[in-house]
Specification:
This protein is mainly β and 194 residues long. The protein contains 3 helices and 13 strands. A hairpin with a 2-residue loop joins strand 3 and strand 4. This is Riboflavin synthase.
Length: 194
């Protein structure tokens, strides 16, 4: 369980394909603090730390994860948002994020507003019921508030701190990002039989 408040950014150091899996070596300021078998959010995807060495950690994404996320397109040098699991004795500064990506979205517009930024994303319309005006969403693991919602698009506004401390600064038109919808909305949708 995560909060969507990014602790650090890492960088993909190496990508190894083995069968239908992809293994990633990632360097980050937190890598040496991790423990083997620890769950860590990488751009919103919960992955298990398998090995730690020389300021880097190794994680593997299986075929199912690669199909539902943007990890299949990760390349060496790519910036990655990193968050450790939330502590149950602290404030929930973002929103409840499971690290279970629902789908991907594509950036269709990016605006520099001279002090903040707006990004507009297009997502599969079948998820429209889970996207509400002023609701919470996880974009590459970052907890954000959405607005200007349509059946298949939404916008997020980014403050300078978030822009400078997450991988959102790397997102351009055409960039595919990981999306996790609000867990409460998913349970309500299920209960309503939608």
């Amino acid at each position: 369980m995560f909060t969507g408040i990014i602790e650090a950014t890492g960088q993909v150091k190496e990508v190894i394909s083995t069968g239908t899996n992809k293994t990633f070596w990632i360097t980050s300021p937190l890598s040496e603090e991790f423990k083997i078998d620890q769950s860590v959010s990488h751009d919103g995807v919960c992955l298990t730390v398998e090995e730690i060495k020389d300021g880097a950690h190794r994680v593997t994404a299986i075929e199912e994860t690669l199909k539902k996320t943007n990890l299949a397109g990760w390349i060496t040098g790519q910036k990655v948002n990193i968050e450790r699991c939330m502590l149950m004795n602290g404030r929930l500064d973002g929103h409840i994020v499971q690290g279970h990506v629902d789908t991907t979205a594509v950036c269709i517009d990016r605006q520099d507003l001279d002090g903040s930024w707006e990004f507009r994303f297009s997502f599969p319309e079948k998820f429209a019921a889970l996207v509400i005006e002023k609701g919470s969403i996880s974009v590459n693991g970052t907890s954000l508030t959405i607005f200007n919602v349509t059946r298949n698009e939404f916008t997020v506004a980014i403050i300078p701190y978030t822009y400078n401390h997450t991988s959102i600064s790397e997102v351009q038109q055409g960039t595919r990002v990981n999306i996790e919808f609000d867990i409460i909305g998913k349970y309500i949708q299920r209960r309503a039989g939608l």
